[in-house]
Amino acid sequence: MEACELVRLIVNKTVVPAEPKRPGNPGYGQLKAIRTLVYARLKGLQNDTRIIWHLKKHPTDAIKLGLHCIPDRTTIGRWWRRYLNLLETAFKKTAGIIQMLVPTTHLIADSTPLVDLYDMEAKWGFTHRGPFKGFKLHAVVNQLGLPLKAIVTPGNRFDSIFLPKLIEDLEAQYVLADAGYHSLKNIKAVEAMGAKPIIAINPRQKGKESKVSNAEFFRGKRYPVEQFNSHAKHNLLRGCWVRPKGMVKKTAMVMAGLVCMEANAIEALLRDDLSLKCASKYWD
What is the pTM for the complete model shown? Predict the structure, then answer.
């Protein structure tokens, strides 16, 4: 399916309702804006200037997106900040479609650093590879490695506190996570949703009682989230978060990327194709 057709199919009036008509200059409207932002990530356009160049070079695509003229670079820059909530809503609803097509058996939680040395809102954090400055993408994926929920935070936020929010309103048989998520609160949150917690034991808490075992955790069930982290950063986002300033715009770009990843997954699932290793096939 062509990229424009895929965008129109997924980001439609059932996902992002059209604004009511109002007097004066009609502008572009939120529906056209969301289509353009998701299309930009489908095509791997790294910044607002490249989006403008691409639309001018491909006017047919701009028409298919519903644009009556090519917006200014500053207009697109405002869209990222203005429509963050709508992008999050679109991601939530596309993730809901994924859950209907593929019942979730495993939820796997993890975080990955989004390194940015120059943003004023970036914070120093730590991973198993050492310290970094930037932001974090916290996500929970299903057994196919498709994200169902995601949160972007400064790099200094600890992973464990976000697990209850990531699994909220989701259903699964098992919830897997590494030792960074090991806490009594998280275990109770997983059990409250009717799932079995498979969380690696924190070595600092070896002397305390635990209802999970490391043996269950290390049986090769966690690789989908590692594949997702690699695909999301290197294939889907490709460093697009580095140039924009401020966490709001970065979060919007991440959410648009996740929407287009889900859009490709929905198309593949409707063809009964379960090998979803490639996040997108529309890059130039």
Answer: 0.89
